[in-house]
Write a structure and sequence with these properties.
Bound molecules: inosinic acid, magnesium ion
Radius of gyration: 16 Å
CATH topology: Rossmann fold
Strand content: 25-35%
Helix content: 10-25%
Shape: globular
Number of strands: 11
Order of helices and strands: EEHEHEEEEHEEEE
CATH class: Alpha Beta
Distance between the termini: 12 Å
Number of domains: 1
Number of helices: 3
Length: about 180
C-alpha cells in the first residue's frame, strides 16, 4: 500500500507488467505502420512516460510530438475539456497515432479527434495504455489498448492524483 496526497492506493500492476504491455504495443505498431509516414502525438501530461517507453521500444522512425489538454481534476472526470495546445505539425498525408495514458469517459479523445478531423491526415488512430470500458461514454474505436482495467481511479506511470504520483513506475488503484 502507498499514500499519495490524502489517499491510499494498492499496487495493481508492477513496473515489469507495464513494460511488457508497452513492448507488445510497440511491436504491433511497428508492424502495422511499416513503410508508412507515422506521426505520433502524445497527450500531456499523463502520456509522457508511456510515450517515452513506447518510442524506445519501436524499431521504426516515427515523427514524435505532443499535445496538451486538461479535463481531469481530483478523482472524477469533470466532463469539460479545455483548449488544445501544441499542434504545430502539418498532418496532411500523414498517418497520425494519438497516444493516451488512459481512456476513461473518452471525452478528451473525442474532442481531440474532432479537432484533428479536418487536418487531412491519411489516417488517425488511437493507442491507449489503459482503458476503463465501464466508464467509456463514446463509441470511437480504440485501435491499440494495452490493458483494460476496472473503473477505479489509478495513479502511477504518468497518471496523477492532484499532481502527485506520476513518477511511480507501477500502477496503483485507489483503495475503496
Ligand atoms: P477521459 O476524458 O475521461 O477519457 O479522461 C482522459 C484523461 O483523464 C486521461 O488522459 C488521464 O490523463 C485522465 N484520467 C482518466 N482516468 C484517470 C485515472 O484513473 N487516474 C488519473 N488520471 C486519469
Ligand atoms: Mg491524459
Amino acid at each position: 500500500m502507498i499514500q499519495v496526497g490524502d489517499k491510499k492506493f494498492e499496487e495493481y500492476l508492477t513496473a515489469d507488467q507495464i513494460q511488457d504491455c508497452v513492448k507488445q504495443l510497440a511491436h504491433q505498431i511497428d508492424t502495422d505502420y511499416q513503410g508508412k509516414d507515422l506521426l505520433i502525438l502524445g497527450i500531456l501530461n499523463g502520456a509522457f512516460l508511456f510515450m517515452a517507453d513506447l518510442v524506445k521500444y519501436m524499431t521504426s522512425d516515427p515523427e514524435i510530438s505532443f499535445l496538451k489538454f486538461a479535463s481531469y481534476e481530483g478523482t472524477s472526470s469533470t466532463g469539460k475539456v479545455n483548449e488544445l495546445i501544441g499542434l504545430n505539425e502539418d498532418l496532411t498525408g500523414k498517418h497520425v497515432l494519438i497516444v493516451e495514458d488512459i481512456v476513461d469517459s473518452g471525452n478528451t479523445l473525442a474532442h481531440i479527434l474532432e479537432i484533428l478531423s479536418d487536418k487531412k491526415a491519411a489516417s488517425t488512430h488511437t493507442a491507449t495504455l489503459f482503458f476503463k470500458p465501464e466508464a467509456y461514454q463514446q463509441s470511437i474505436e480504440l485501435q491499440y489498448v494495452g490493458k483494460e482495467i476496472p473503473n477505479l481511479f489509478v495513479v502511477g506511470y504518468g497518471m496523477d492524483y492532484l499532481g502527485k504520483g506520476r513518477n511511480l513506475t507501477g500502477l496503483y488503484q485507489l483503495k475503496p
